[in-house]
Amino acid sequence: MLYLIVDFATAEHKVDIPKIKEVNDLAFGQENEARLIEGVRKSDAFIPELSLVAETESGDVIRHILFSRISIKTGGGSEPTLALAPMAVKPDWQIKGVGSALVRDGLNRCIEAGFGSVVVLGHSKFYPRFGFIRASTKGIHPPFEIPDEAFMVYEAVPGQLDGIEGTVQYP
Question: What mean pLDDT value characterizes the chain?
Answer without folding.
Answer: 93
